[in-house]
Amino acid sequence: MSQKPDDFEALADNPFYVLGLRPDCSRIDIEREGQKLLGMLGLKLKSAATYMSPLGPRPRTEDKVRAAMAALRDHEKRLAHEFWASLPPPAAPPKPPPIPETKGPGPAPFAGAFAALGWRRS
Amino acid sequence: MLLALWIVLGGPDFVAQAYAIGSVLGVLILLIALGGWMLALLDLVGGVVWPALRRTVVAAGLVRPSYWLALLARASWEREPGGAQVVAAALALLHRPHDAALATWLEGKIQARARSGVGGVVATGLLAASRGDRDGARDILVGVDGFDPDFAPRAARRAANDWLVADAAARGDWITVMRRGVQPGQATAYTRFLARAAARIRGEALAGEPNPTDFGLWVSWLSAPGRKAMRPLLDQARAAPRVLHQRKPPPPASPPATAPLIDPATHADDPVAHAQALHATWLALRPKTAGQPATELEQRLSATRMQELCRAWEAAWAPAERRMRQRVAVLTAQMRAEEALAPIRRVVAGELAALARAAKLPLDSFEAEVPTATLAAAELRAELLGGVEAGSEELRARTAADRRLPPAEESRAWNQFRRRYEEAVLLGGMALRYLMFPQVHRDVCGYAVWLWNDRKEYGLSGPMFQWLLAEAEAVGDVEAIELQRKNVGAKK
Amino acid sequence: MTSAPLYVGIDLGTTNSTAAVFDGEKVTLVRNAQGSPITPSVVRIDARGNVTVGARARRFLDTDADNTRSEFKRLMGTAQGIRFQGAGVERRPEELAAEVLRSLRADVRDQIGVLPARAVISVPALFELPQTSATSEAARLAGFERVELLQEPIASALAAGWTVEDQGGAWLVYDLGGGTFDVSLLETRDGLLRVVGHDGDNFLGGRDFDWAIVDWAIAQAARDGVVIRRGDPAHAGAVRKIKLAAEEAKIELSRVESASITVPGLDVAGAGYDLDVTLDRETLERLCAPAIDRSIAVCRRLLQAHGVADGGLTRVVLVGGPSVMPVVRRLVSQQLAVPPAEGLDPMTLVAQGAAIFAATAGLEARPSAIEAVRGAKVWLQYPAMSSDLTPHVVGRLVERTGPVNSVPTEVQLGRADGLWDSPWTPLDEEGAFVLPVSLVPRKPNVFRLTGKNIQGNAVTIDPPTLTIVQGLTISDPPLSRTIGVALASNDVRVYFERGAPLPARRTFTLHTVDSVARGAEKAVIKIPIVQGEYEQAHLCRLVGALEIGGKELKQTLASGAEVELTIELDRGGRMSARALIPAIGQVFEHVAHLLVPEADPEVLASTVTATRARLGELRTDAFRRQARDSIERLGKVESALDDVGRDIDAARGGDTDAAQKARRTLIEVDAQIEAVELDRRWPELDREAREALIWTTGWVQDYGQPHEQTLYQETAKAVDKARQGRDPLELQRQLRLLRRLGSSAYGRHPEAWKHRFEDAAADVGNATDVARAQALVKEGREALAKGDNEALRRVTQKLWQLLPSAAEDRRKGHESGVR
Ligand SMILES: Nc1ncnc2c1ncn2[C@@H]1O[C@H](COP(=O)(O)OP(=O)(O)OP(=O)(O)O)[C@@H](O)[C@H]1O
Ligand SMILES: [Mg+2]
């Protein structure tokens, strides 16, 4: 029932988003950007630590950058990634999502339920 | 004995000091033994030891003393004294800050003293809870109410139920609180109060009793533990109007929607980007961490919305292929556009299926005439069936190889399997139910028979037979019904 | 003043090893004490324990075979010890490899004056994890502080790409060595060199030519009535001598038209014999043709896998000793319709490429000199070699506090030739800068890094310079074989696909199958790590296992508990793994044995017998079905089994390499057979479905209740649909339901249980517990006699429980404890 975290990554981990490039970029762009990002990540620069995807900001790691470069060097693979990246990533980092209130019928969750039984551990 | 006492008190001159001390000890031991006997006697009459223990030694969080003293609670645990010990110790563990060493100690005791029987199951569940693993505890404990009362002491079922009700209340799952809270045979004052308060606030009736009155609420509250903590709940309940007739629950107020990062409407002119934006909107609503319920997705992704999404994808394929053909030429790739698109379609179908599953949308929400939707439906169907089949096969393989797990693990394995099956029925309807049952019946029946015959885990296997019977009736499998009736009727 | 960079590359070959150095502009071969760039990979340890390496050791290969060893590279990664009789010592393969490396390292010192601390060592592309880690170990033993491993074909391509001017297009590196054959498809575009894919055969090379010649020579001897057998230990000495002579003749024939094989005084089982035959080039070419054809077939397979049509190659680079042979060059370029690249030395190309690669990896060979530069310390990141003319340099201040005057706020990069300077660039709030620089093509470019403090005064920066070579960019080295975890179901959870860029790290959540009690001595959950492209775990090679033992557990582990398993590979393909169990917050990191399993000839032989039996069955069946594909496949299996038989013979004669080869072939045979079985399963299932339909129709019509009859109608339709759609999984599901309906109806027949019992009783031999099953059969017979239908049913059901088992799968899946 619970989704494995590695299930949904076609959109969020798209190499173009990881490298901050658009699908029409050239081969040299990929190498240049990738090498630059690897350098920045190697020096732990905050400016390289996240990238924007349609599913929100994601952490950028050296592994991801390397995998992205490898994927885009292969034209067959690049083709598929171009498809997924045809959506431009949202420009602004989004505001933090509102805390969902569960205002269904019935009382709110009762945090003291365990304590009422004298239990210190849930 | 009295004589000895007299000698000690009366003859200081000729009795050696050491002898005196020895005697005093002897007397004390005797007194304790006598006290024990008297308690045991009392216990036989009214089963008072267990409740008394729970209020004193257990409530004080004294794990080891609880463990030993529970031996006296014969009446409440006739069949399995070891079970009483480990459950008492596990409860005591919950009453104190977590202590890893004690937890480990108890774990050893469960392995040594409660290898079979419900006591070990409940204690393992509570132990998991004391370690903060609430999901694990729930997995182990949910099945306990199904245990045959003949093999599952009421004290054990109550302890499990208390925890499950508390857990449901803490999660805000009041439906479960109301159902479990008044379940005969395992309800306690605590669970009853929670169930009644919830029923009153929600304006719903409980099984077998009307919506509670103010007076009824007061009484339940007074008899329940933790009055101070539960006072606000009492006040909230009394403030709610009392409803005598079952009222239809009001439609849930839709929660404030999370704003999409990319508004699909801005891409209305480009079918591909539109489908992707819509897709992304829904994907973004998935819970951030695995295991969390997908509440918002469940509430907002209706069948209509899913159909809209599928259609959006359907409309995207033709332009996507056109675009891809151009790119194939530019990149001089070896592949044809359709070839490149095929795996993408599969990925989309897989993600649609996963979305539907997270949102608990039934299989038939997918429209048969939209190819993308059919593909997604096939994916979801295969996933549901595959999950059940693999689970069933696992039970069968374990039975065949006689690979025994401790009862708590069996209970967990069984509950997990049942949940998968029930999910498949919920989403897949009768069609899947018919299809799954033959294998599931063969494997689960074998498994339950193994638990019963070879392992004497009557408490565990009884409910399995019952479940099989209910399922057999649901699919109208006459042969299975007949067989399971016999199994359910069987008593050791 | 900075001296020119120094990069060292080493080709550690099975037969010959070579070292080369690169200074950013040109590659120089390192000559050994004998003045040759090629050092035979031969080690001799004499009775006094003195170690000799190379040509001086090679001379003793035939006269003193017990103390002189070659071809130990083939044993890398196995636990096999190699004995030196005279000195009475035993050495591991990596220790002998270390001797060769040490000797090459000394040659570099003698020629360049620097004892290198870092180097790149090439390994065959198809080396597996145990072998690569043994190679790293050898380098460590030889005194290298750090090495990177590079796949041989990439090295060749890199060297070829550096030397050959015209860029672009797809090309093939054909590397036929002493015992391994590697072929790689590469592509260069815009100065980026990319490995598209490789293939190869771990057991194909010059040796095969030698053996073909030996067999021919033995046949010649047989004309004189002298019988020499390769598998006979008594003839081992004679065979070894003939082989050495054969190899010499072969090498000679690369230059001349005919050569003689003369071995006087052969000791054949006690009797003496003088072998003297003449081999001409034509005969040699005829003898070698089958092996060459095999290599070309592998090339074709690779080209096909990557959709390269005939004539789609720009050129082929021929590497390795046997590629010197005119016949090899001719056949390869003819058959693949591609010109060979000229002007490249097949024998040293790999070492040259390794040296160039050391530059791209920034692996300076000099031990890091502690240059006393006083100034603001900066961490730098830049490519040591790049095809891009404007790559980026990224830097960051190590310390941002200190006297204001010594902290730079702006930096500038200037090229040493004075023709290019970057603008002055302010450091950002993290004290970092990112600057594009401009390179001069095909040269080492030195840049000076200068800084200014807040008052605009110059600040020295440490390091003051950096060097970037403009040349090729090489994509990250790809993984040669898929790596994954074997699951209890005998499936493989793939972690890294073959071709994945290295280094790489990945985590998946797995689930335990059984529970493990804390402290339980014997209970372990085994997580087998396998390498190979097969979908079924048992066909892949086990390269390591992580074990979670009850003894180390802090608390009992539930069945189905989550295990987050992370596998990490470094650039050289070395692997590490760790398992985190979130429920108990414990981490396990100890990866057990990383060895190539030994292959015992007797075990192999019995596997061959079993496989032959299976082959027979499958063949009969395939002919019956007229399944052409399967018949063809089985034909291949048959001839592969013949090869295996020969190799086992050779293994009995002491050739451990042949044993490994046999083992490998058997795995491939297994995969072929699996494919045939898969092919066979569908028709069988389809037939079953038809039969089930016929069988159930009758029973359901006669004995079925109304709701069963409706359900039956629907199911029958679904069965037809699944048959049309050729969907085995779905068909099996529907069949289960169908059978269930049929059996329900059938059960209403008065004699049903009697028949069921008889069926089960007939199958008793397959029961998991035969004794118990037999007891049950006896019990059943009694019930039958008494006419006790109820008891009969109970017995039959119990009997069913004992019949087939899925424990089999788990055993196959390397006994995996996770799913
Ligand atoms: N001039 C030549 N003509 C023909 N064969 C040769 C020639 N020189 C060497 N060989 C053969 O080449 C083989 C050794 O080739 P090479 O040195 O390329 O292998 P290697 O690199 O040591 O092996 P590997 O690459 O498999 O580790 C030997 O079988 C040798 O007989
Ligand atoms: Mg070589």
Structure description:
The complex is a heterotrimer of chains A (122), B (492) and C (819). With 122 residues, chain A is mainly α. Chain A has helices at 9-12, 15-19, 27-42, 62-73, 75-84, 113-116, and strands at 50-53, 56-59. The longest helix of chain A has 16 residues, at 27-42. With 492 residues, chain B is mainly α. Among the domains of chain B are: 2-43; 50-239; 387-489, no CATH class. In chain B, helix 7 (118-130) runs antiparallel to helix 19 (407-454), helix 17 (337-358) crosses helix 18 and helix 19 packs across helix 20. The longest helix of chain B is centred in the last third of the chain and has 48 residues, at 407-454. The radius of gyration of chain B is 30 Å and the shape is elongated. Mean pLDDT of chain B is 82; it is low at 1-12. With 819 residues, chain C is α+β, with helices and mostly antiparallel strands. Chain C folds into five domains: 7-163 and 348-360, ATPase, nucleotide binding domain (Nucleotidyltransferase, domain 5), CATH 3.30.420.40; 165-343, Nucleotidyltransferase, domain 5; 376-462, SoxY domain (Immunoglobulin-like, Sandwich), CATH 2.60.40; 601-680; 683-812, no CATH class. The chains are: A mainly alpha (122), B mainly alpha (492), C alpha+beta (819). Chains in contact: A-B, A-C, B-C. At the A-B interface, helix 1, helix 5 and helix 6 of A face helix 9, helix 11, helix 13, helix 14 and helix 16 of B.
